[in-house]
Amino acid sequence: MSAIAEAFVLVTQPEVIVTIVVASFLGIIIGAIPGLTAVMGVALLVPITFFMDPVPAISAIAALAAMAIFSGDIPGTLLRIPGTPASAAYVDDGHAISKSGRPEYALGLSMISACVGGVIGVLLLMTAAPILARFATNFSSVEYFWLALLGLSCAAIISAGSKIKGVLSLLFGLWVATIGIDAVAGQPRFTFGSIELTGGVSFIPAMIGMFALPEVLRNITARATKQEPPTMGPVFRGLGTAMRKRWRNLLRGGLTGSVIGALPGAGADIAAWVAYAIAKRRSKTPEKFGKGHDEGLIEAGAANNGALSGAWVPTLVFGIPGDSITAIVIGVLYLKGLEPGPIIFVKTPELVYAIFFAFLMANLLLIPFGWAIIKASRHLLRIPPAYFAPVVLACCIVGSYAINNTAFGVLTMLVFGIVGWLFEENEIPIAPAILGLVLGGMLEFNFVTSMLKSQGDIAIFFSRPVAAFLGVCVLFVWIFPVFGVWRRRKIKGVRT
Amino acid sequence: MKINDRIIGGLTILGGLGVIAGTLEFREIPGQQFGSAFFPRILGVALILTGFVQTVTGANGALFQVNEILKGRSGLQVLAALAAIVIWVIISPALGFILTTACLIAALAMLAEGRLWPSIATGVVMSFILFFVFGKLLRVPLSYGLIESVLT
Description:
The structure holds two protein chains of two kinds.
Chain A: H1 3-11, H2 14-32, H3 38-49, H4 54-71, H5 73-79, H6 91-99, H7 103-136, H8 141-158, H9 163-178, E1 180-181, E2 188-189, H10 203-220, H11 239-245, H12 247-262, H13 268-282, H14 294-310, H15 312-318, H16 324-335, H17 342-347, H18 349-380, H19 385-404, H20 407-425, H21 431-453, H22 465-495
Antiparallel strand pairs in A: 1-2
Helix pairs in contact in A: 1-18, 2-3, 2-4, 2-18, 3-4, 3-10, 3-16, 3-19, 4-7, 4-14, 4-16, 4-18, 5-6, 5-7, 6-7, 7-12, 7-14, 7-15, 7-18, 8-9, 8-21, 8-22, 9-21, 10-19, 10-20, 12-13, 12-14, 13-14, 16-21, 19-20
Chain B: E1 2-3, H1 5-23, H2 38-57, E2 64-65, H3 72-95, H4 97-111, H5 116-137, H6 148-151
Antiparallel strand pairs in B: 1-2
Helix pairs in contact in B: 1-2, 3-4, 4-5
């Protein structure tokens, strides 16, 4: 049986379908609740996937993320509170359409755009990933070192806000990754005499703490909104005409999102903003943007879910996460004993194709689940944070406990949660720290291996054409912002 | 809690020095050029350099600024949420998962201005659901505690 047929059988197993449906349900609810994000939902799902086989585990993550990213548009459209950061780009347009008395139309556009964008992203993933994987089978430790460094550099430097703080976050994550017994020398590093730390910092409690606990703390102090969500009319009315009119925006948004998502470190939020800017630039009526126009909403909505699928290209092919969600996926794959990278395409191609099918299924399920959540959204948005924030905290606790069945996991979650909260309060991005924690081991291993092979000669990092190209890319990512700062200061100096 | 950028830079430098100091006792492997200390020392140096740049380029302002979220009732809610985690760790083995989690959810919900009965109902229902999902379906050994005789 071919790998594709085998994958189809795998993904159509009843337990996989049930898992996808349950994860989709959870995702669509989590995204629709203001303050709960797709990344947080995935972080809370991971302890459950810990007990599953690889295919249902990864399918559940893919389904939850796809649903949550779409349903993040619901509070944005109805209350002008973006449910996820990725919805922020077009929140004004969605809310303006909603205020004009057609909330179901705005949400219907988001739903169809998310579905089409997601499917475009999956098609790109299915086409590009196997080709890149064939190319990447010739990579050595040098190329992997550069790839890991490129992914980490992009995450630290492309991330919004201060680049220095992005680097600081990354270095913190890399340091945390060194905690535990060094596999090569058997030397305990930074364990502070703790037996529990000799195995390293457990990735799942750390990730739950950094992503979920700050959100719990914010929500527990938030007050319920006084706004009354509007009532919904027929969801599909007028969507066919709009989509026929705006098919260019739909396709361009899906493609833009998929390509941006495939860049390491650039996630759905960056893709949505870029797609919105492109839509505005190409529009004949740019003055209408932000006032209830559908072009930006369709293009950025498609880019959101396209980016989500695109981010899996570097994740599966090189083991380099495209965004925070795929950083978590890499951690899950390692926990399952699967090393993401080109070899996974050779050793277990059926698993990779099963992930593709699961992603496709999740994106198609967006239509029925999306319709249901749009209809139910009025009631969901009335739940005050006072009730759901403590429940999320309980999920964080039990999820952290479940990994090793020890209270140490819960305390790890608490410590990393406080660190994550301090990071957010001081505008230090969290994603680079998580990427550093996930990729730190790989970076160190490939760096030290290459240095040992060359007996300390740094020239090895530029000795092969692909390695040299990747090295130049990394140097460009590091030097470009420094050059930008120097240029800005020079211009400022000339003006004064 | 907002900390001045220059203090963040200073703390980063101290962190870098701490990382390097922590590697001094790592044992060398005979015949191996790059041991356990090699990579952490590079990180230490990178932390020192990053901290230095942060200190030099960081914005001026108050050394520490307590955010609104930590003042008054909000501050109490944040502290209660963090304390609840520690309390859960201490008392759940004896009291049991369901009772501890139900109390935790209900107490925090009420503290966050939830109403009495909906808060208790949320706590009880959600603790049973979590126990069913993790304790029964996923076979995580969650303690029954005081209600063991009732549930088993």
